[in-house]
Amino acid sequence: MPVRNSISRAGSLAAAALGLALAAAHGPSALAAEGTIRGVVEIRRSQAATEARAASAAMGMPAHRPDELRPAVVYLDAGPRGAFEPDEAARARMDQLNQAFVPHVLAITVGTTVDFPNNDVTFHNVFSLSKTRSFDLGSYSRGDSKAVRFDRPGVVQVFCDIHSHMSAYILVFAHRFFAVTDDAGRYAIGHVPPGTYTLTVWHEGEVRERRPVVVPESGGAVDAAFVVR
Questions:
Q1: What residue numbers bound the domain in which 114 lies?
Q2: In this structure, are residues 150 and 156 in contact, taking their beta carbons and an 8 Å threshold?
Q3: Rounded to two decimals, what is the model's pTM?
Q4: How many CB atoms lie within 10 A of CB 163?
Q5: Most buried among 6, 57, 73, 221, by the most CB within 10 A?
Q6: More reliable by pLDDT, 24 or 135
Q7: Which CATH number do you get for residue 124?
Q8: Where are the beta strands (DSSP E) in the chain?
């Protein structure tokens, strides 16, 4: 047999063996079709806006915080088997605008750095006493921005030391299988390997519901609707 053909055949066998090893390492679901978990979360709880604190420096700003969507976060309690490598370059943003944090709810993966720009005419002092990630950025003015990196999974509640009515949440996940609901309450978690999971709905500081969900071997869409009271 010519040397070139022997090398080619040996390479093909090695590639096949590597493919089988990878399949065994990742389990049978690694070769199956992925699915999407989707649905609507209907919020029936009161979400009244809070009044902004009066301040002489706030001339021309809204007298009240704008009505804001208080979205839910839908996620898998535990992500599918496999390593999760934090993205060291991942960044997200939480603005300070009209004496409110925008967005009110931010969902990120471990390793993400969040920027906190001040777009108000007043000073802000962003801080958190949460066990997941405590920090105090000190007072800074319009046009300035400070950043915090989040290295552990968990829930971080954010406040402003100058404006007591300002608050927000950052949910930090050790996997990518989560979604924040949109203006219509819709969500979609894509690229979920087949398997049985626990699907969780979080809203305003609390887990509101958990339920099992099954993504079939054939993949496709799995619908799950929730009502938060």
A1: 33-228
A2: yes
A3: 0.78
A4: 21
A5: 73
A6: 135
A7: 2.60.40.420
A8: 35-43, 73-76, 91-93, 95-96, 101-102, 105-109, 113-117, 124-128, 135-140, 145-149, 154-160, 167-173, 178-180, 186-192, 195-203, 206-215, 220-223, 226-228
Do 50 and 24 lie in one domain? The reply is no
Percentage of the residues of the chain whose pLDDT score is greater than 70: 76
Range 36-59 average pLDDT: 70
**What are the structure tokens assigned to 180, written together?**
């924040």
The residue type at 117: P
Same-domain status, 18 and 67: no
More confident residue, 227 or 16: 227
- C-alpha separations of 210 from 17, 21, 87, 140 in Å: 41, 35, 28, 40
Mean pLDDT to the nearest integer, 4-24:
36
pLDDT tens-digit profile of 53-70?
544 444 445 444 444 568
Residues 112-144: pLDDT tens digits?
999 999 999 999 999 999 999 999 999 999 999
- Say if residue 44 is in the same domain as residue 25: no
In a shared domain, residues 117 and 84: yes
In the block, tokens 């404006």 appear at 163
CB of 126 within 8 A of CB of 116? yes
Q: To the nearest whole number, what is the mean pLDDT of the chain? A: 82
Distances (CA, A) of 69 to 44, 89, 105, 214: 12, 28, 9, 30
* DSSP strand pairing (167-173 vs 154-160): antiparallel
| SS3 label, residue 10 | helix
Q: Are 135 and 150 in contact (CB under 8 A)?
A: no
